[in-house]
Queue: 3 jobs
Job 1
Amino acid sequence: EVTGKDAAAALNWIAANNLEKPVGRLTYTQILNSRGGIECDLTISRLAEDCFYIVTGTGFRTHDLAWIREHVPAGMDARIEDVTEAFGTLSLMGPHAVGTLRKVTTDSIDFPFGQFRVLHIAGHPVRALRVTYVGEKGWELHMPIAGLADVYDALMSAGGPAGLRPVGYRALESLRLEKGYRAWGSDITPNDTPFEAGLGWAVKLKSGIPFMGRDALIASRDRPLTKTLATFTTDREDIVLLGRETILRDGQFAGYLTSGGYGYTIGKPIGLGYVRAAGGVSDEYLATGRYELVVANETVAATLTLAPLYDPDNAKVKA
């Protein structure tokens, strides 16, 4: 949590997306370094005018906390407290998430994607963040750690008849690949810019608001991208993609996969990876190539796409 009279100003300098939003809004954003590379990938919810709640990946807690602390502008009243140990988190997502949540709370859950509300479940206050990492409507539910078991039991009891069950990380990984959701540390790193990663829509470049990395992005804006993140599939279902497989375009080296897995909804192996070309990677360049992947020394035909493979219009997420 970041609090203080300058919390909004400090975070708006640190974050690439615009945080000047009303209380109750949630913002997906990257945090950039001076080169425009992606140092953090997270969500920031505005709990109050002077209080923000930052959620990042489990493995990035120490890195992201240190980066934010080190880059609060000098003299600003912005206090940072790591509240990780105080909260438990459950992600309730899928076709029956709405019906399940309605059974366990009398509070209204009819608020849009990109917002949050405090709900009461099993006698505990729960911060319900309307986001998803799996391509279906749902919520991240953040509650005091002492109430985690009670909330879990209430959800499992309510959702059991509809088939609610816990899932492992590999299931989540499969679903996020089908949506083309990026993973920090593999698909996006400090060496990749939001423009290269297809995340330029989450950058407040046109606002005129200064932020860390803005100058680097402006300097590169009018130059052709030399790499672009894309999604690859193969028609061969026996291929196992793990990441780091070589990408070939018209038979020539063009990059490598950054992550891989299998999409059980679409029934195909999926990989994300950067297509590279010193002369520039335009949409036309991407569309006109013939692609293959080198998997365990075997060359396999592949199809490139820039749109999500599942629900490309986000109709299910924003329903």
Job 2
Amino acid sequence: MEKNNKKWKGFLGSVPPIVWMMIIMLVLFSAAADNYLSAQNLMNILRQSVPLLILAIGQTMIVLTGGTDLSLGAQVSFVTVMWILLAQAGMNIYLAAPVAVCFAVLIGVANGLLVSKGKVPAFIATFGMQNIVNSIALVLTLGSSIYFSHHVFRNVYESEFLMIPTPIWIAVAVFAGSWILLYRTQFGTNIFGLGGNAEALSLAGVNTTKYYVKTYAFAGLLAGIAGLITACRVESGQPTVGSGWEFEAVAATILGGTSLNEGRGGIGGTVLGVLFLNMLRNGLNISGVSAMYQNAIIGIIVLGAIVMDALMRKGRS
């Protein structure tokens, strides 16, 4: 009997704290709104989570190196703008999509060089880049949304395969590719090494500059993909649509258990962090909570969840 109790306690202790928080939230919101647990609403939560999830995977990889990219939200906005501008200029819309993503990759390369070669703290380097990219997007669009009518937007965002929306399949593919990259390649091993002890990695003969640049460039690639999906959702280029997403990506990363300064964690927990944030926002909307109070409530709950997570992890260590 005592052995069974120990096994049960061990199982409970192995469940990530974010899972318990999500269960509590599901119970509370399902009691407040009858349709919260409906299949349609749960599918909507998953679909709406896709851009942030893809962005947060890139953010998690950067956090694992010991940095933070505050320009990722701006990159999302910039890609939506560039895709539409290129299409308006006469470029084939299917060709314009990867070209627009390349801009985000180049921004990531610039961030990586600033952090590694320039020795600029990641927070400062990417904050400066955020402002530059935001300003360029606003200048190019004269501060307003730009439109281009094409069936590809609706086809991508509203189509389904095996009764599952296409954006969710894209997110699954991104997660699978990122998981392989992070856990099954030398690149991933060195990402963890950069966050754990970059100096030791360098002394071992690893070109740390190359891996910093690759990590930020990969995060830019994911921001670009998130930007394309976002453009399909809003059917336009919006210079501020990704504003603040970088902070939500950081929150999801921390909620998922990734340490900001120890090179510990992973993208699996980040998925749970993103779902937690979107389930929370969706639940507040369905429950009829005024938009004026939602940001404050979300901030309080997220802070409380992060503190609770930290305390529970400390208690287990």
Job 3
Amino acid sequence: MPSATSLFLLTSFYPLSTGEEFIENEIGHLAHAFDRVIVVATQTSPTDVITRAVPSNVEVIAAGGALPSGLAALKEVLPGLSQLPREALSGDAARNPRILALDAMFENHAHRIADALAAELPGLRLAPGSHAVIYSFWFHVQARLAMLLAADLRSRGVVVDRIVSRAHRYDLYEGETKYGHIPERKLLLGALDGVYPVSEQGSRELRRRWPAFADKIHTRHLGTVDPGEQAVCARSPFHLVSCSNLVSVKRVDRLPVILAGLRSRGIDVVWTHLGDGPQMDAVREAVERAGVGEWTDLRGHVPNTEVLDVERALNPSCFINLSSSEGLPVSMMEVAALGIPILATDVGGVAEIVHDGVNGKLLPAEFTDAQAVDALAWLAGLDADAFQAACAASRQVWAAGFDQAKVYPAFCAEVLGAEESQD
């Protein structure tokens, strides 16, 4: 990698507003590996401000805007059609008007962001002959922007060494989308130097759908910081902890019945949930219907910086996640690092951090309440040594595959082509 190389990191919101908190674990490593990091937030609003501290060699540009919806989105179809590359006008896009419209909106949105970014590039004073790497955090409109940005930089004489993208969940699993389609996959896979799903399951899915590009698709886990002191996991009471936004895909509203089922078996179980969201009222109603209000603590929003301390202080017995869809949740990495057993649905890459019968239990994606109760009763019924072994196994799984001190330096060197400095 030549000296004086700039990295363009394309995000949705980070470091403005809220969201993409997991980038906070990675940004320091990127800043050490590159002379200059330029973060381009692509889905911000005019009132958004920087809410996260960034290293001194990181610059932030807000380009584009929120994803349009309704009539505003439809207005992007016609201009987008005229911008679609020839290679995008084939396959499903050529046969299905709805998919063609999706691709057109996608293309026009990417061009609007690229135009806004182009206006900012002169101020960056990138000298002709200087080098850049472009890293899209999402395999979606940001990855298309990466292609357009690369062309713009090259027209200005900047040498673009590589263009890469991560892939997570909404930007990867086409079968879970409304029309079974995510725009311009073939175009992006053909143009990018590599695509890096955050789970091996995601890599398998992408290779299955696009076998011609299998050699470009490689797993790279996200990572979390070592929290230091681990949790002291207790079972008196048997304390379930969950942490997520309260949205339908998380299925938190099913937990009260599961809690009631455990109590009916004589297990002294309590439950604490960290997080708020549009389903809060539905969860409260489910708690009331199940008659478990006495043993339930819905904490609401907890700042990201406080979550680990709160989870540690609860002396949890088990972290629980009942999502119908996931990539590979950072929340599970964090609790595994604390040495907490996990019960979760076997969706996305969850099985890469929850090893069934070792550091927790896996449930089928479409589990029954009885299956969840049985799995938790198994954990509650382990003898003391076996339970402590499950706690230790969670920490070991994290250390082997999700320690940010290992995964991010490797990502910088092997994917981005830059070694972290040692100062």
